[in-house]
UniProtKB/TrEMBL annotation:
Pfam families on file: ABC_tran, TOBE
An MF annotation (GO) of this entry: ATP binding
UniProt cross-references to InterPro entries, sorted A to Z: AAA+_ATPase, ABC_SmlMolc_Importer, ABC_transporter-like_ATP-bd, ABC_transporter-like_CS, Mo/tungstate-bd_C_term_dom, Mop_domain, P-loop_NTPase, Transp-assoc_OB_typ1
Keyword Transmembrane: no
Protein name in the entry: ABC transporter ATP-binding protein
ABC transporter domain: residues covered: 1-228
Source organism (scientific name): Streptomyces bungoensis
Record's keyword terms, sorted: ATP-binding, Molybdenum, Nucleotide-binding, Transport
């Protein structure tokens, strides 16, 4: 697939280029309003291109009506036909493509078997769990043998426990899919688990693209840094020292020159109520606690001051430090726990 998707709307312009090889899963990741779903709907033919192109297997599709595109779509709320059984929901696509009723039902039964839903073939959507409905929707999309599979927040409607199970199953099905799959999500874990490559979209533009591990290691915007749980800063490097735009310097182990990013996880930050004497950390800043929140099994402290940052610590440590909004603290980070890379 080769695409450049340009869609103009009042006060908003989407302009994103996408490429994908057969068998590749590409995730569009970004905040609400970034343009991810608009891009997906444009690929499906549900939103017209203002400019750009869509070529799939060498065929131009940007002016092709939705029903004539070799595209399967799994919508966020699945959109199963409530009056049809699971079997007939899946058979609907093949029937529209000209298959006989028997052929369509045979193909649908094979897909339900593959999804582990053979025992639910006769069930109407209202009798299916969220995870079962998601798998029926996926089977319905795959039964038309698409060359492009589009998934719009396919796990968003599931509870946390079901989501874990269905995510693992969806990954297995996508691994077997021989054509191109494009996934839209705002959940970084869905993107990291399901996708081979991420395209991060903000304000209608692609701001970073790469493998999940590469993007997690080298975020280039505050949004991405927050997603992967890193403190991120931009500055000018001169050897081991990076002078940040925010004011202070950060000492790193890398030797660089020119514009760079510096990142470190909140877990790398150590807090003290008094200025530490003889601390081994090369980076030391005076801060103030702006807020505290539970983050997993730890407490995350939002700090302002010389360097705004997030710090993770145990509940016991937070209690011993008597942390509360407005409390002054000293924050240290070892140079070996920072990571600097060219901007």
């Amino acid at each position: 697939m080769h695409a450049r998707i340009v869609v103009d709307r009042p006060g908003f312009r989407l302009d994103v280029a996408l490429t994908a090889a057969p068998g590749e899963v590409v995730a569009l990741l970004g905040p609400n309003g970034a343009g991810k779903t608009t891009a997906l709907r444009a690929l499906a033919g549900l939103v017209p291109f203002t400019e750009g192109h869509l070529r799939l297997d060498g065929t131009a599709l940007e002016r092709t009506p939705p029903e004539a595109r070799p595209v399967g779509v799994v919508f966020q709320d699945y959109l199963l036909f409530p009056h049809l059984s699971a079997l007939d929901n899946v058979a609907f696509g093949p029937r529209c493509q000209g298959a006989t009723k028997a052929e369509a039902r045979a193909r649908a039964a094979a897909w339900l078997e593959r999804m582990g839903l053979a025992d639910h073939a006769g069930a109407k959507p209202r009798r299916l769990s969220g995870g079962q409905a998601q798998r029926v929707a996926l089977a319905r999309a795959l039964a038309v043998r698409p060359r492009l599979l589009l998934l719009d927040e396919p796990l968003a409607a599931l509870d946390a426990r079901t989501r874990l199970e269905v995510r693992a199953g969806l990954r297995r099905h996508l691994a077997d899919f021989e054509a191109v799959a494009v996934l839209v999500t705002h959940d970084p874990l869905d993107a990291m688990v399901l996708a081979d490559r991420l395209v991060v979209v903000e304000h209608g533009r692609a701001v970073q693209e790469g493998t999940p591990s590469g993007i997690a290691r080298r975020p280039r915007t505050d949004y991405i840094a927050r997603l992967v749980g890193l403190n991120l800063y931009r500055g000018q490097a001169d050897g081991h020292a990076v002078r940040l735009a925010a004011g202070p310097s950060v000492v790193t182990t890398e030797v660089l020159s020119g514009p760079v990013f510096v990142a470190f996880p909140p877990s790398a930050v150590t807090l003290f109520r008094d200025r530490p004497a003889g601390a081994s950390a090369r980076n030391l800043w005076r801060c103030e606690v702006a807020g505290l929140e539970t983050h997993g099994d730890q407490i995350r402290a939002d700090l302002t001051g010389e360097l705004p940052l997030a710090a993770d610590l145990t509940t016991v440590a937070a209690a011993e430090l008597d942390l509360r909004p407005g409390a002054p603290v000293w924050a240290t980070v070892k140079a070996t726990q920072t990571h600097a890379y060219p901007a």
